[in-house]
Design a protein that fits this description.
Shape: globular
Number of domains: 1
Strand content: 25-35%
Oligomer: single chain
Radius of gyration: 16 Å
């Protein structure tokens, strides 16, 4: 499990993810399957928030040693996009169904 402090700690992983361009499948919010298209290797990445702190875990060898990997970087990108979409949808629905109107 890796505690996520800043994007800077993922710099190398982000660069490799951009080069490798893995396929990320959303299992559910916070759970992702990442496939390396070149090798076919598939890993599971979990993202969670506890006590205001953010954590992530990848099932690859690097992830098992708490080293940020490209699969983690790719899944986090999808996670952030999904979280943003869900927050926007929530705000939109709140505006539509405001009980004060």
């Amino acid at each position: 499990m890796i505690q996520l402090h800043s994007p800077e700690q993922l710099t190398k992983a982000i660069i490799k993810a951009r080069a490798v361009k893995p396929f990320v499948r959303i299992n559910c919010f916070g759970s992702y399957t990442v496939t390396n298209k070149a090798t076919g290797a598939t890993y599971t990445v979990e993202c969670l928030k506890q006590g205001g702190r953010r954590f992530a875990h990848c099932s690859c060898k690097a992830g098992m040693r708490a080293i940020p990997c490209f699969q983690l970087a790719a899944a986090l990108s999808a996670h952030i996009q999904l979280a943003t979409q869900l927050a926007e949808a929530d705000n939109y629905l709140a505006d539509l169904y405001d009980p004060r109107d």
